[in-house]
Design brief:
The complex is a heterotrimer.
Chain A: H1 3-6, E1 9-16, H2 20-29, E2 41-42, E3 51-56, H3 63-72, E4 78-82, H4 83-88, E5 110-112, H5 119-158
Parallel strand pairs in A: 1-2, 1-3, 3-4, 4-5
Chain B: E1 6-12, H1 17-26, E2 30-38, E3 43-51, E4 54-62, E5 67-69, H2 79-89, E6 92-94, H3 116-122
Chain C: E1 12-16, E2 28-34, E3 37-44, H1 64-69, H2 76-91, H3 97-125, H4 129-150, E4 159-160, E5 163-164, H5 170-179, H6 181-196, H7 198-204, H8 212-217, H9 223-226, H10 257-281, E6 298-306, E7 309-317, E8 325-329, H11 331-343, H12 351-357, H13 362-366
The chains are: A alpha/beta, B alpha/beta, C alpha+beta.
Chain lengths: 159, 128, 367
């Protein structure tokens, strides 16, 4: 178990949800559901965040904001798309200003179902995202080690 | 004691808008909202004003090319509604006190609520 | 981001939002500052605009209530109810008594949970973490009652054209009222912190002032209007069962952030009293009348009092199953001009507090 899995930092952004999922995300952080027992802290700074909790669908105005937050987050990172809107647009899928789920803009690792998603399932999504983070971190290490190994024989030979 | 809600709708012309609104302001009415409804050849604007439980609506039908004066000099709080209507319905509202220059929603298609151009191009075959 | 001018004299423009730690929802301001003082603010909305008013042209008018409930996740039941009332007015349908009282019950429950939610967020805005968590813990009990009676935690899903879709029995309602009894004591305790704690007073008293005249002229609604001394509460219209319930609008006169807190604290207490009365007087009988066929041609205007203020629904039917136009003018939309007024003159550090005290609900504002 790596440190990142034990204490993932969260960032929350409401793309264009109805607020129902957002207040449930907040409910997760308060004493009843208490995501902090998994070591989570909510941060407002994307550069400190490991898990991106996003609710709602995307539109012209918020696509740059969503991309911006995602790109500022350091690797490894995981995205949790919360609620039906974040998956497909939900009940608003047919609206003229709804372009669809967040997967159109950024890669999503975990989908949390529900309209509105229940705090229990949001917590589940966060815990899974933490596992995915750990796997990503492992994969990154492996890749780095492999790269080093690939380099080192050549360096040895040069000596 | 419950005061009964009284709803009145009155039709006015573009020229009569500002004088009527001025009179309402002087009589102590407050702005509730401005609503746009798109017809096939005109836009209907409904200005709602409230005084206690009374609710008064000024109804204005304008052709798309007609300029409508902004009521923000009288009711400053109307700027959001007017910006919204200009963006979504394409109504020409002139001299709004706080002007977003058509960037309130930045929707996928401009004038999304207006049916005027839509019906002109796709009147045949469409369900509506 | 604007470039750093070399100690340029005169105003500086600072962008605030859309993604900001204190805002659960995206809202953007261009704040014009002179030193630390805000002299002007231009709001920018539109990040959550979906265009759901247009959806009414594609959905069956009886199904649209599910969309109406999702205009906003906090006042969801009241949005569904307002839409239903508007459609029922066109149809000329009389809702059964029990449905009227159940709607009142859920409306007030929603007001309590919304105000508690807001108390927490406002406390968080000026860094009082403890108060935030305490308010939200109290809120969870209210949410449990909502879930038990309606089936949903935040989106109740119990609004229905012609009545309500759920019928909790009287025993359940009484048990629920007993379950939220401890919350009332907890809220009184929290109210003491809000009113008595000098650090809270320091952040709220005299901050973000809106005069009675400005609030009225700018079209402010709800606690924002009542905190400035205007006695107006749309519940006095007597819709649903409010005509048969004794209550008086909670009005404060100071017009600052503290007054807005006091109005909402008063309203929580008032809502509990109304809930008591509703459960005691709950009539027996059916909870819905069947609705069949097409709505007649016509239009209706409905005004309700949501936790954030007066909301207006307009529905126009053209005689088909798809309505011609649906419009909702939400309270935050009406409150934005007054909020801009309140921000002017405060220091930059107080901006989050002032924004939060109008209880912004951006989702319903932008629809």
């Amino acid at each position: 178990m790596s440190a990142i899995e034990k204490s993932p930092w969260l960032i929350h952004y409401d793309a264009s949800s109805c607020n129902g999922c957002d207040i449930e995300v907040l409910a997760c952080l308060t004493p009843m559901y208490d995501a902090e027992r998994f070591g989570c802290i909510v941060t407002g700074d994307p550069k400190q965040a490991d898990i991106f909790l996003i609710t709602g669908s995307v539109n012209n105005l918020n696509i740059p904001v969503v991309k911006n937050i995602y790109e500022q987050m350091p690797e490894p990172k995981a995205v949790v798309a919360i609620g039906a809107c974040a998956y497909s647009g939900g009940v608003f899928a047919e609206c003229y200003n709804v372009q669809g789920g967040v997967a159109k803009v950024i890669p999503v690792d975990v989908y949390v179902p529900g309209c509105a998603a229940k705090p229990e399932s949001i917590l589940d999504g966060v815990v899974r995202a933490a596992q995915i983070l750990a796997e990503k971190k492992k994969a990154m290490r492996k890749a780095r080690r492999a790269a080093r190994h690939a380099e080192s024989p050549a360096q040895e030979a040069a000596k | 004691m419950i005061e009964r809600e009284v709803l009145t709708v009155e039709e006015i012309e573009v020229g009569g808008l500002i004088p009527t609104v001025d009179a309402l302001r002087a009589a102590g009415w407050r702005i509730i909202q401005v609503l746009g409804i798109s017809g096939t050849d005109h836009i209907e604007l409904n200005y709602s004003f409230g005084l206690g439980m009374r609710h008064r609506i000024l109804r204005l039908r304008v052709a798309p090319e007609v300029e409508v004066p902004s009521i923000t000099p009288v009711f400053l709080g109307a700027y959001l509604y007017e910006n919204e209507i200009r963006d979504l319905f394409g109504v020409k509202i002139e001299r709004i006190a706080v002007d977003w220059l058509g960037k309130v929603y930045d929707p996928v298609e401009g004038g999304a609520f207006s049916k005027i151009t839509v019906t002109a191009t796709s009147s045949e075959g469409g369900p509506r | 981001m604007s470039s750093h001018d070399k100690a340029a004299p005169g105003p500086t423009v600072i962008p605030f939002g859309p993604q900001h730690p204190v805002l659960p929802e995206p809202l953007h301001f261009d704040l014009t500052l002179e030193d630390e003082k805000v002299v002007g603010a231009i709001p920018q909305i539109g990040y959550i605009h979906r265009g759901l008013e247009m959806l009414v042209e594609k959905r069956d008018y009886l199904d649209y209530v599910h969309v109406a409930e999702r205009i906003c996740g906090i006042c969801s039941f009241m949005h569904g109810m307002g839409y239903c009332e508007a459609v029922e007015t066109i149809l000329g349908v009389q809702v059964p008594d029990r449905a009227r009282w159940l709607r009142t019950f859920w409306s007030e429950l929603e007001r309590v949970h919304s105000h508690l939610l807001w108390l927490g967020l406002a406390a968080d805005a000026f860094g009082f973490e403890n108060l935030f968590h305490a308010s939200w813990r109290a809120r969870e009990t209210v949410i449990d009652v909502a879930e038990e009676t309606s089936g949903g935690r935040v989106i109740f899903g119990s609004a229905l054209v012609g009545g309500v879709s759920r019928d909790p029995d009287d025993e359940t309602l009484r048990r629920c009222m007993k379950a939220i009894e401890p919350v009332r004591a907890e809220i009184l305790r929290l109210a003491q912190v809000w009113i008595g704690e000098p650090t809270v007073r320091h952040r709220l008293s005299g901050v973000g002032h809106v005069s009675k005249e400005a609030a009225y002229a700018l079209g402010a609604v709800g606690p924002m209007l009542r905190a400035s001394g205007v006695d107006y509460d749309a519940r006095e219209r007597g819709y649903e069962a409010y005509g048969e319930i004794e209550f008086k609008a909670v009005v404060e006169t100071a017009g600052d952030c503290m007054a807005r807190v006091l109005v909402r604290l008063g309203e929580i207490e008032q809502s509990f009293r109304i809930l008591d009365e509703v459960v005691a007087k709950m009539p027996a009988g059916p909870v819905a009348v069947p609705i069949k066929g097409m709505p007649p041609v016509g239009e209706s205007w409905i005004r309700l009092e949501q936790p954030r203020g007066e909301v207006l629904y307009f529905v126009r039917s053209n005689g088909t199953r798809q309505l011609e136009r649906f419009r909702v003018r939400t309270p935050t939309f009406a409150n934005i001009p007054a909020m801009v007024e309140a921000i002017k003159g405060v220091s930059l550090a107080d901006v989050p507090t002032v924004i939060l005290t109008i209880d912004p609900c951006i989702s319903c504002t932008e629809r």
